[in-house]
Amino acid sequence: MAEDRPNDDLNSRIAKARANEQARAGDSRLGKPAKGYSQGSRVLATLLGALFGGGVMGWALDQWLGTSPWALLIVLTLAVIGAFMNIIKMSKERAE
């Protein structure tokens, strides 16, 4: 019966199946995104986060202080400058 097979047989079949799957998929690194892709995603998230965060904070300050539109413009400008400083810092990292 199939239930009477020893565990070694099951382990060898699992190892053989994994080897076949790895051979079929080719290089195992293909499943992971490259570092350049992740850096691009970080740059995009940094820029969008700064624009959205600066806009919301500036708008809230304008509503609270009644200084429309100056707080929005100042906070948004500072957020964009900060985002570009972070992007420049990220661009100095070495992509593999």
TrEMBL record:
Basic and acidic residues bias: start-end ranges: 18-30
Membrane-spanning ranges: 43-61, 67-88
One Pfam family cited in the UniProt record for this chain: ATPase_gene1
Presence of keyword Membrane: yes
Domain of life (superkingdom): Bacteria
InterPro entries cross-referenced by the UniProt entry: ATPase_put (IPR032820)
Transmembrane listed as a keyword: yes
Keywords for this protein: Membrane, Transmembrane, Transmembrane helix
Region (Disordered): 17-37
Protein name per UniProt: AtpZ/AtpI family protein
Protein species of origin: Sphingomonas aliaeris
Upper taxonomic lineage: Bacteria, Pseudomonadati, Pseudomonadota, Alphaproteobacteria, Sphingomonadales
